[in-house]
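Marked as duplicate of an earlier ticket. Keeping the data here for the record.
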Amino acid sequence: MTRIKVIGIGLGEPEHLTAQAVAALNSVDAVVVLEKGSAADELVRLRRELCRKVITSRPYRFVELADPRRDRDGPDYEQSVSDWTAARASLLSTALAAEVGPDGCAGLLAWGDPAFYDSTLRVCEALSEPVEVEVVPGLSSIQVLAAAHRISLTRVGRPLQLTTGRRLAAGGFPPGCDDVVVMLDGECTFRRLDPAGITIYWGAHLASADQVLVAGKLAAVAEEIVAARADARAKRGYVMDTYLLRRNG
């Protein structure tokens, strides 16, 4: 049976890899990447360079797959994601058969930690042939954000909610929770909130040479974040960012 190791690689820096992740990378026959969007070449380059630096014990193949197009404008968001996942799984199944084989091991690299808004495990579940999957956790952008701002994500006796920009736009600040981490927000949805009593801790390209941090009262720094995000995107051609919203209570 083909084995797959889903490896959390943090934010793409070798220093973010755990010893377990390094060992896992040095045990695979092929590293398979699916990439999408205008930033594909740069993001593939970063992962290729990461592998070059840390895989030292054995030869391996680096397999690039052109990610299937996802319908982002359809009326049913969840169905479009389901269709995209199935298309990715079909593409990966073909690559595993051609590049890895039934006795081989493939490494799939997940940004941050594969447990947080990452599709890799869903793709593995949708594969046409049974595989043996091992998950190696990684350093998430959520943890790096908190460390960069020198804050704790949680407060005494209070819950923490993790959500997306899409859900924040649909439902506003989640009721019953004063600390909310927002990921996958390309629209700067925090601008739609009533800023009264809310502090934001925002970061882009965390722990890299291009890291940008902004923190403060939402009313005072919202437009500063919008401008900083635009600059970060212009510099790299893409932007990876996340933020914590903290409501006074």
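See parent ticket for discussion. The first strand starts at residue 3 and ends at 8.
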